[in-house]
Fold each of these.
Amino acid sequence: MRQPVISFHKIRHCQEYALCFPVKFEIIDCMRIAMLAPFEEPVPPKKYGGTELVIYNLITELVKMGHDVTLFGTGDAEVPCRLEAIFPASIRTLPPFDTDQKAREAVKWVGIGNVLRKLANEPFDIIHNHNGWRFLSVSSCVRRPIVTTLHGPMDQVYQQVVFSSSPDFAFISISDNQRVAYPTLQYVQTVYNGIDVSKFPFSEKAGGYLCLLGRFSPEKGVKEAIKIARMTGMPLKIAAKIDFVDRQFYESVKPEIDGRQIQFVGEISFEEKTDLLKNAYALLAPIQWEEPFGLNVIESMACGTPVVGTKRGSFPELIEQGKTGFLGTTAEELASFVSHIPMIKRLDCRKAVEERFTSTIMAEGYLQAYQRVLEKFGTGKNSV
């Protein structure tokens, strides 16, 4: 059997799992990995879905490396591995889950129960949880090592109650800043999200509009982006998903969308996204929260398009000031940076992603994390 040797680009500091590895070490050949996805979107997503795209990229790389991966997700997933369908289709756009928060919450718990039943007799080496606190809250009956990637903020008390309830829980942060809200968790390491750069066409020529990509929500800085566009006089294209929890916010902003300078193009496909990004002058990301990563940032940079964003959350880890974009604290400051965009070489943006944020680098980081969890807990973690 092939015994792969993985060369890691950077060994990161760990808090609770302070293990020292050489630059090269051997990993388990053909590791059996259970990948637990959220139920809202398919893997990969048809349109919006950062977490689901990351999961797809990770699965693709792990399979290429010779590992045996099983995805526990929805039946509309299209993945190069075994699929255990928890529901026939993703739930975000299905009635009543598209408008009823309680119904959506209830069906998520039904899904977790289905996952537990399917896991009961499966001989996995490790379970990689992308389903957050819900799965962990009932995971004591799972007799396999578990590692959880934290894809969102950790500022909610209910999350912290679950996350701190067992010394056996192991976590992966997607940025170092993400740990600030809860620094005492058992972090294995930070693994940045990665993309398949080959799927993002590079453009040396800047377009004539600004764009915003993500959710149509207050924390994503939609109002601030419109303000920046007004101050600079540049057109703004907003490509965003509107979830039912953000519908009221959308209605409050709608009068500012004139269809000329300020355009709302809706939730777009992957191909539409890359076209939007590569032809933009700059991506605006005036976030109003502690963004744990920001996949749109590296997607934009992969196309050669610089990012103008708020200096908070993970953004200082992703954007190099004056080289791949600009970071500021107010809409006025960000608007002033727009005129400096020609100083940035678009190729530098692309190279930054190729050097730090590829799917391969991400998968290597996760394999390192899996190894650390297995060495700490052994293959029989939670065994009776």
Amino acid sequence: AGSGDLVLGGQADEAQYSVAGSGDLTASGLKVKSVNASVAGSGDITCHATDYLKARTTGSGSIGYKGKPKELDLPKKNIYEL
């Protein structure tokens, strides 16, 4: 909660990202098989999902993704492909 910025890189099997407030999480350099991402507020997340992505936003924040995940669970509100 609040504001801040975080940049991640590498590889992982699973990741859960959550931003509350106005912070930004840049994880497009972290290649992950299964991602669960949520933004509440005006923050932003960018991520890299290869197999599964669940993304949720409330407020004006957004989630950008790359990696062509095989399964998507997203409402299309403020969600975009990088």
Amino acid sequence: MQIKIEGLAQGYGSKTVFSGVSMDVGPGITALIGENGAGKTTFLRTLITQLRPKAGRILYDDAVPGTARARRNLRERIGYLPQEYEADSRFTVEDILHYTAWMKGASSRADFDAILKLVDLSESRTTKYGKLSGGMKRRAAIASAGVTDPDLVVLDEPTVGLDPAQRIRFRALLDKIRDKTVIVSTHLIEDVVASADRVVVLSNHGVAFQGTPDELAARSVVAAAPGAPQLGKLEQIEQSFLQLIGESNV
């Protein structure tokens, strides 16, 4: 899916969360980063049509979903993982997938076997959600977001609560869906370095940066001390991010 965002603004009452946001997003992994309160979740909820823009517009494959039916049809093409996901503890993993597919009117075309294999839950399809480990619950949630083979995958802090090994497996999962348009909100810079094709930094009520991870790293003005090893890409991106949000001492 190709997405074009033009002059997007969002807020609650008299409070502006962000404004003047413009960007093009296509297939590949786009990482959305920003300090707490920068509006990442609000941006994602606007993108998936849960919230109506205060100003500006979003085109999905060159079309604005201007009617309730158009928005409903669009949502069938979107897989969304909220930051806080919970399911009925009595549901099995397969029950969750059936329910999600049914809600999207896609029960007939959902490929449960494929998505369970993708998230490595094939052997746990009959396990109740309440019996899953934290990492398995997150993978079940990701499976729910992807069960209808969506064109747009939106993941809000998908690695929250995962241990390092689980985060590595999650990044491997992202590689398998790189042909989709994937937008991932994260606060972990290592996820950006490992997975992202493109980075968007939200700060000060707007977009402070958009480009590749290499371009973000190149913005760093921090130099290694004489005789010390040069900063790695992760450290450069961290410093660039801090400079963009105004928290660097440099």
Amino acid sequence: IIDSRFDTLVDLYEPKKNVRARIDLVLLPRMEAETISKGDIFKDIADMDAVCHVVRAFEDEAIYHAGGSVDALRDFDMVNSELILHDQIFAEKRIERLSAMVKKIKDEDQQKELVLMTKLKDFLESEKPLRMIELSEDEEKMIRSYPFITRKKLVIAVNVSEGDLDNDAILSAFRERCEGLMIEVMLVSAKVEAEIALLDTKEEKEEFLKDLGIQETALESLTKLCLKSLNLISFFTVGKDEVRQWLLRKGSKAPKAAGVIHSDLERGFIRAEVFKYDELMEKGSEAELKKLGK
């Protein structure tokens, strides 16, 4: 994960080893009629924590479009509907099976699941994704192993031409369409990103971004949106031996952070020495922070 704070800490501590946190991005086939009918793409998505849907919004006659024309909002709606339909079909099949099971044996857990599945099916029939529905902790546990795709966090990356990277109209149209659906939206130009990837040095990339009026690469923006959608933050362990970046659920307490490093640390947690990155940057060293009682 690209994070300027990590780079600064590495420069400050000059450790023997430095390790970034990471998220794995898996490229899936295009959501076209053939891949949808086969159903394999849904199996791949089911294993993910979040989904990034790249929607084409640039014109180029040399590049084929399965829909025959470029209409980013239409394509988004189509995929969104397919994902909702997938979850609806799964819920209906599960209801059918549970109904048959409870008729034979009165099992309390199965009856509770049947009620939950009916609740989810009704919600999906209103054409709303399952990430919008509030579930209890017990209900979450019941469906955790099931392949409900619309329960996953979703990021929409609208692939535009270089000239549209600052097109507020495109961004606003998508944000309006996604309002209330718990979806993060960003603009990206794959063509620009390909050009950036060909540059050799950090300085060349920074100069290129500056010329385009871009603050950061799309990969950096996408990473931040993925972390935001998954409610994750970064924290760092630092020292001369190692500087390491870790991921943690936002709002977690120090024992949970210790558990991310090693489960034994959470079980035997006593205390943690913690300081804020901004304060370290302001004072310049841990020693100066300790003088202030930090």
